Amino acid sequence: MFSRRQLLQSTAVGFPMLALRGLLDSETTAAPPNPLAPRLGHHLPKAKRILFLFMKGGPSQVDTFDYKPRLQKDHGKPLPFDKPRVQFAPTGKLLGSPWTFSQYGESGLPVSELFPHTAQHADDLCVINSVHGTNAAHGGALLKLHTGSDNFVRPSVGSWVSYGLGTENGNLPAFVTICPTLAHGGVKNWGSGFLPAPFQGTPIGNASLSSADARVPYLENSRHPRQLQRLKLDLLGQFNRRHLDTFGDDGDLEARINSFELAFRMQGEIPEIQDLSKESKDIHKLYGLDQEITADFGRQCLLARRFLERGVRFVQVTHSDTMVQWDQHSDLVKGHTKNAKEVDQPIGGLLTDLKARGLLEDTLVWWGGEFGRTPCVQGSNGRDHNPDGFTMWLAGGGAKPGIRFGATDEFGYYAAQDKVHIHDLHATILHLLGLDHLQLTYRYAGRDFRLTDVYGDVVNGVIA
Q: What is the reported pTM?
């Protein structure tokens, strides 16, 4: 049985038929529709875009944004109730925070002395003290946080947002992740899973590289000018579309065609975004690029702002070394002090910059790690993993400013009041972006899937 194209190729012996073939070719070699084209959500959004500041390893809630006077008072005493049935490792008696807390802003939010720059934005923060998850291991907890599942391969939250809303700039991806970790789930944390390939994250470098060396590779072709590249892509597109006409739909091939087209368009925008020399000295100083300890993460945050203001829908920056940055099983004071110094000024500068540019109002900033840490000591001076109660905060993008929502118990071990599961957090983030987590579905393997699976409730108490 002949396809239409095979029939034309075998019978085109006159100029009329050749002309008809040319018309058909012009129709079928056009670039496929852009799967990342901007789309409307399910309801009016409060945020147009999102920035996730991921603190890999698990910052301690009781040493950062969850002040516990009782923990300080009972330092060195046994925990007066049972520890979780499943623990990552044994822990001992209560360990009070080595850092002092102060109240900031008109809201009076308590913030640790570890975060003096972030604390200046207390009235912009929506601090959620009652987050809890289901996994005490880094790998499972990272996947739960990023994909909603700790034991299956699922699309990442950034991919779901890209699938639901597309990008505001057709020359850029919808989802960019800057210096992501390659450990504990690695690419699954920004992958598209069973969603079509265009919705996966585009990595800029990785955690093993300095952010100064983080680049989108192969953006420039010194051998061929753009005009010639365009001609070659058009020819390749003809071949690929002919294949599709002959053999039918092929999602992988369609994704490859779109990736080639997006890569070509990115050449015109990414180099300018990555060129931070265009920013003023005051901006470099604001983000801490003039200091060795803050330069690396500050550069990530500044790059993130530049991607956001050019229409990228979801940007993630990761504070991590090659493994686990905030994972202080021992030497808590040294580790958390160093980590906080690396990120605090860049985060404060980022919030200041977003607000000055009018971007914070419709940009949702999300801060946190995969879990928190125990209020009980591990070894002589560390804290163990704690997924049963920890803190994240939101800012801008429709989050209620200057509040503490929910609470852990008086020692900071378990989420106790207005508990917010990771599924609830995902549902709320999608809601702020105009997406109903119950309706944002994709049919795969005979059933409809969503980021929150069969769980999750929007936390209305954190929405302005």
A: 0.90
